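Troubleshooting: if your tokenizer reports a length mismatch, compare against these two reference records.
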Amino acid sequence: QVQLVESGGGLVQAGDSLRLSCAATEFGSYAMGYAMGWFRQASGKERELVATISRGGSTNSADSVKGRFTISRDDAKNTLYLQMNSLRPEDTAVYYCAAAIRVSTLLSGAGDYWGPGTQVTVSS
């Protein structure tokens, strides 16, 4: 069982940066065994995939965040990150981290484990 807890959300202005973190408990020796991803859901909209990182470190990101957001992982710290730069009002959403055995699961919009989410609000 993997438990995920996001942090780092908040209220910022357009153009600002934020770094989200996702702490994984009971990752332990399985830290290298999960692909990880960030999703977001804006009010009244469907959840969308933001970025994924495979067990080997390969990354994938949505076109809407390419060049602005960077996903990374530190397995020694059992932590997943999302560095968000040049934030826009349309980035406002609840951001969730997810873990899955296969990155294809994340790319399909699903996950084996989910965090409770952290709110990011970008004002114009």
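Reference record two:
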Amino acid sequence: VQLVESGGGLAQPGGSLRLSCAASGFTFSSYAMSWARQAPGKGLEWVSGIYSDGSDTHYADSVKGRFTISRDNAKNTVYLQMNSLKPEDTALYYCAKERYGRSLYEYDYWGQGTQVTVSS
């Protein structure tokens, strides 16, 4: 299993970024996927998840209404569109494979992470 995140960088408050996670080594369309983040000095925070067929999405309260998760099973890629970014969104963002297709919060593989910094 390999998960490779990209798209992180520096954004101004109120700005946008789109993260991508390219997956390989497993049947991508059979598993739910999640994004999580870790801010400096803080624990891991689950951010968003999407079921294997994209039929259902879930968000942490801290990002609801600002972030949108999506997936393209033909491209084995999951995305996180982040709008209205805030300085408190600054973190290392990880893509995670879930153990099942229609269940979240049970990660078994992680990517290496992509840094998102929100600052003026």
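Descriptive notes for reference record two:
- The radius of gyration is 13 Å.
- The CA atoms of residues 67 and 92 lie 16 Å apart.
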